[in-house]
Design brief:
It is elongated and about 55 Å long. With 143 residues, it is mainly alpha-helical. Strand 1 and strand 2 (35-37) form a beta hairpin. Helix 2 (9-25) crosses helix 3 and helix 3 crosses helix 4 (106-118). It contains five helices and four strands; from the N terminus they run ααββαββαα. The protein has helices at residues 2-7, 9-25, 46-82, 106-118, 137-141; strands at 27-29, 35-37, 88-92, 97-100. The two termini are 35 Å apart.
Length: 143
Amino acid sequence: MDRYFRAFPEVRDYMEGTVAEARSRGYTRTLLGRKRPLPELNDSNYRVRQAAERQAMNAGIQGLAADLFKVALVRLDGALESAGLASRLCSRSTTRSSSTCPRVKRPPSGAMTEDALTHAVDLSLPLEVSMAWGDSWADAKGG
């Protein structure tokens, strides 16, 4: 970890700054404004406080990823419905979503999916997506 932080001191600065800011506010906030209260940052128990610090360090990035994914899925659902496609979202996990569509509709559904996921929010870095098709979740995962 020491070598990592020597190579990327900005990461340590970000992590320490995030914890300090969360401690003073009582919460973290994602780039899209969603708040996560962390009252445990001021807990008298060292282990509880340490766990809250780790949560504060991760909340901004993980929370932003969740926010982006939710925005993208809402956009995608609207785009599929507006296009009159038979494709529909049917499930999602933290980093994956599943939709159903007839084989002949894969190209337009895939393009809409990629557009919704890569353009959910304008960021300074591009968002990337990978997609797979299959008759089942296992087929799409390749196994």
